[in-house]
UniProtKB/TrEMBL annotation:
Keywords: Hydrolase. InterPro entries: RNaseH-like_sf (IPR012337), RNaseH_domain (IPR002156), RNaseH_sf (IPR036397). This is Ribonuclease HI. It comes from the Bacteria. It is an enzyme of class 3 (hydrolase). Residues 70-207 form the RNase H type-1 domain. Pfam families: RVT_3 (PF13456). Its EC number is 3.1.26.4.
Amino acid sequence: MDVIIQWTYITPKKQEIVLTSDVLPAEKALLLAEDFEKTGRVKELTFIDRRNTIWTKKELVKLLQEIESEPHDIIAYFDGGFDNETLEAGVGAAIYYQQNHQPYRLRVNRRLGQLKSNNEAEYAAFWFAVQMLEELGVHHLPVVFRGDSHVVLNQLSGAWPCFEKEYNAWLDRIEAKLKELGIQPIYEPISRKQNKEADQLARQALEGKIIASTIELAKKGIDRDE
């Protein structure tokens, strides 16, 4: 969870100045806030998250304690593939998250029918990743979505328009589910090379190799770049 610190500082001449920080991880923001308070010149101090919700220090500490046992600090990679001969698609998602002070990785894929193109498979892959987040119990938290389908991500962010009716149906479905779960999406288009894990999962699904595994990365010594 990322926040901005906003505090009212009292100068030696008793003037009030409102200051704001850059976007920071909530844990780091709390540590900085404690340093500010040690000056004895803080009149008011609040935290603002990506949804512009305002939190007091006490409220933010309580929130972090509550979400610690739930999946958080989530990055979801997605990719879709399409076989023009069988008219079937493969979708894959690799989801990294923290829970109870430990990092985890979920790798899962699925083979789908009734799709018409590789482009549609990319929308289906994003939808699949959102479904997996729902199964994990993710709600009311920011989630970073990464994929090499710049079209899907830029359309979801509103940067690019979508004129195809069937693709708009996917976008509407995805946006409705994100709103229902209270997920605050952060869209980060990446290269195909950077998305090789989700790409492999999608390819394996097309080959009939279905995967659903969760591992604790701290025990396996695996990080997101491997």
